[in-house]
Design brief:
This protein has 168 residues and is α/β, with parallel strands linked by helices. The chain has a single domain (2-167), classed as SPOUT methyltransferase, trefoil knot domain (Alpha/beta knot), CATH 3.40.1280.10. It contains 6 helices and 7 strands. The protein has a 7-stranded parallel beta sheet with strand order 3-2-1-6-4-7-5, with helices on both faces. α1 links the parallel β1 (2-7) and β2. The longest helix has 15 residues, at 136-150. It starts with a strand and ends with a helix. Could methylate the ribose at the nucleotide 34 wobble position in tRNA. It comes from Oenococcus sicerae.
Amino acid sequence: MNHIVLFEPSMPANTGNIARTATAINARLHLIRPLGFQLDDKKVIRAGLDYWDNVDLVLHDNFPAFLKTVGDGKLFLVSKYANISYDQADFSQTDRDQFFLFGNEAYGLPEVFMRQNPEKAIRIPQNDQHVRSLNLSNSVAIVLYEVMRQQKFYGLERVHEYQQDKLK
């Protein structure tokens, strides 16, 4: 299973959009506290539309609590400071949990943890001279759809009957 992990997210609309993406690709969404909003915030609910009942959501009290859940899964740290581009990493496994950890919108991931685990870090190439960072929900979608592409869109193969009729 693929897991989207948000480290101390602070913007409710981003989290709502990411919840929708997680639901669309059958990924589990992990939120690491403290959160910069309440989960019943109108902006979170609005961005997630009516998908919240389908979100596979796990809340963690803190970063060490989250790390205990990784177990023998594979952890990827998504950071603009990484040396390896996300398209160079192998995400093709579908028989092992893969966790994609994204940092807080304002300050990213814990620097000490990043320095201790550079081999786990991947980045989305961008022009750092003109753009400080990409939007978090866009970053999640970019990386996770590459993951799904490498996994041959495992679990997303079905086209609904009404969609097939529209294609004719």
